[in-house]
Amino acid sequence: MSRTPVRSARQRDAWAFMGPGVAVVVVALYIPVLYTVYLSFTEYDGLGDPTWIGLDNYVEMFQDPAIALSILNTLAWVLGTLLVPVGLGLLVAYLAYGLPGAAWLRVPFLIPYALSGVAVGVIFSFVLQNGGALSQALAFLNLPGSELRWLQDAPLNTIVMILAASWQGVGVNALLFTVGLQSIPKEPLEAAKVDGAGGFRLFASMVWPLLRPTTTIVVGLSIVNSLKTFDIVQSMTQGGPNRVSETLGVTMYRETFLNNEYGMGSAVAIFLTVITVAASVIYLRRQLSLGDAAPKIDAAPKTKGARRA
Asked: Of 1, 62, 196, 241, whose CA is between 20 and 30 Å from 99?
């Protein structure tokens, strides 16, 4: 008996289940992306029909000093969010790991993550604006810095916004690193302690290499989120003054919805998408290759066997 009718029936059933989901993905994701790619090669103000202009939007984008500064600010966000929230999240997770009531110690760091980026921006705008809470506190305590224009002067405004985003992101990074620490086998760590390893040496030689899978996830998410930074910058400075604190996300918003330059906005969106995907792929491929080359640590069974022997 031929199996072809059975396979055909299974394929029809599979498409019957998959068809609606595939249709939704195509309509909601792929068609808008393809239309954005098309708009990036046109001049379009939202009225009438788009006019095909080829690569002019991309040429103009790379010649615009404001967009060049936006790219530099976006790279600064990537570097800043890798150093501060990821580093502090790892420090909090490692110092609290194993302590009594460690879960409660992490709660204050997790609360800011429940806030939206806009809410964080509003809070820090109140604190950092001219004559705001921070300037008043520094002046009251006769400390230097009360005269600084935290949100007006570059690159100070970008730095304080990165710190604001770090305040929000430390908690979730600490939580992810805590999960990674809990997944590390205890036997290799106990053996290292018996051999005299402790403190920073134990962390650098044993804990950090065993945290590689978790670190890959945390750093990968941080890179993608920092490249797409928009809400905190838009709520705190709107990219100003004079566009000196813009990121690519804010530039895309400005060109599309404020200047009604849908072609240029689409070009910035495609450029941002390309560098985000490229950075993610390059980083993940590098990490996976390093993971394959790293020495494997045998778990407990051999240790137990050795002890019996």
From this structure: 196
C-alpha distances in Å from residue 187, one per residue of 164, 193, 206, 231: 39, 10, 11, 45
Q: Is 159 helix (H, G, I), strand (E, B) or coil?
A: helix
User: DSSP letter string over 203-231?
Assistant: IIIIIHHHTHHHHHHHHHHHHHHHHT--H
Calpha distance 193→120 (Å, rounded): 42
Q: Are 250 and 239 in contact (CB under 8 A)?
A: yes
Q: Which of 300, 100, 94 is nearest to 182 (CA)?
A: 94
Q: Which CATH class is domain 19-297?
A: mainly alpha
Q: What does the pLDDT look like over 246-301, one tens digit per residue?
A: 999 999 999 999 999 999 999 999 999 999 999 988 988 887 776 655 545 554 44
The partner residues of 51 in beta bridges, in order of sequence, read 43
